[in-house]
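Hi U.,

Before I forget, here's the chain from the pilot set. I'm dumping it here mostly so it's searchable later in email.
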Amino acid sequence: RNVCVAVGDVLPADLHDAHRRTRRGHGTHEKAMRAVRLLQDEGLPFHVITVLTERALDEPERLFEFYVRNGIKDVGFNIEEIEGVNTGSSLAAGGIEARFRQFIRRFFALVWAAPGRLKVRELESTIGLLLSDEPARDEQNLPFAIVSVAHDGTMSTFSPELLDARHARFAGFGFGHVATHSIADLERAPLYRAISSEIRRGVEACQRECRYFRWCGGGAPA
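Structure:
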């Protein structure tokens, strides 16, 4: 299987460092860009993920120029969600949906006007779905489509956000350790089997009951 590395959260320094800071309060933009340069120098395929905050919605031209100038050819946009340890979002204010639509419309226009310069996950996936007879598939509910490794070596799959999530029934969602477990070991772990089975049943329920399953694929377990 070909591996494509995701680097996130990649934005211009002031937007990035406003939210992505170390425990000592230092910005992490320089480290993220160092990862981008390393992958480029090694010729490894990668895409970047940009989390759209309220401030970023006003900067479609600047973000587009930032990616092109830094040789970034593939980007995906996440919205700033209230999820896991992130208990608030700058997108909770009123009027955000209209601004989000305007950002996407303008950014897609920039991409369309410069063919071959930048791929956008949301644009590519939406066009693909419109041209296909097959329903969407969400990598976040497919086992091992995504493999996540925490700072301490804990391994997980499904939604990356599950790495730092806790649940009364499952405690954590770590299925093994990168130094001592293979993917096959993770598949045999009782915790993995219980969670995988529950996720599969949830997706099957979505498929039976929701008219938007064709476009969603069941959603993210996180």
